[in-house]
Design goal:
About 25% of the residues lie in helices and about 30% in strands. It is built from five helices and ten strands, in the order H-H-H-E-E-E-E-E-E-H-H-E-E-E-E.
Length: about 200
């Protein structure tokens, strides 16, 4: 019986210690599953935690620990972002947006819950993703009179994570002739549990 209790205590302490190490957005980024950001420019898998960590650190272009935000740039056209959203009941939701460009940008956003070393994709439960067809409809409602109409099939768009604040945005870089970087299609505000469309 004592041996069983001792084993359970060690497991609990190990899980607690691994979670205690995840304090900053950089900690969470470095702890992401190995499939994420573990291939070099040639597509070769990087092996070994120290080498993967070094490679991931080389991708960080903006590291804002205070606001829980990272911007990543690497051997691809585009960028990625990692942001932490503090839950009302404690803990964080880890947001990961990745955007590829050439010339129009498109991308995805995923939301993760982390417990111990287990990463769980909770996107469907906390965020209603925008389809490209819905994005085209939003563009057609918001467009300037001299802009081209988006096709009924939709068009590429991407997600922007906040460096400051709690608002995730869907944007398009080829949607306006005004010279602005991001034409905002939709916004979601984090309420402490999920993202609510504005």
């Amino acid at each position: 019986m004592n041996k069983l209790l001792f084993t359970l205590a060690i497991l609990v302490l190990s899980a607690t210690a691994s979670m205690a190490q995840l304090k900053t957005v950089t900690d969470y980024f470095l702890a992401m599953p190995n499939a994420a950001y573990s291939r070099d420019a040639s597509g070769t898998t990087i092996k070994g935690k120290a080498k993967v960590d070094a490679y991931r650190r080389s991708l960080i272009k903006i590291e804002d620990i205070k606001n829980g935000y990272l911007r990543l740039e690497g051997p691809w056209e585009g960028w990625a972002e990692i942001a932490l959203f503090k839950r009302t009941g404690g803990g964080y939701i880890v947001a990961h947006a990745e955007n590829g460009c050439g010339p129009a940008c498109s991308g995805f956003v995923k939301f993760w819950s982390v417990s111990g070393n287990k990463w769980t994709n909770i996107t469907p439960g906390v965020f209603k993703e925008l389809s490209s067809i819905d994005a085209a409809k939003l563009f057609n409602r918001k467009k300037a009179a001299d802009d081209e109409t988006a096709s009924a099939d939709g068009f590429p768009f991407y997600y922007l994570l906040p460096r400051v604040g709690k608002t995730v945005k869907a944007a398009c870089n080829e949607c306006s002739n005004s010279g602005g970087d991001d034409f905002i299609l939709a916004e979601w505000e984090f309420d402490g549990a999920k993202f609510v469309r504005k």
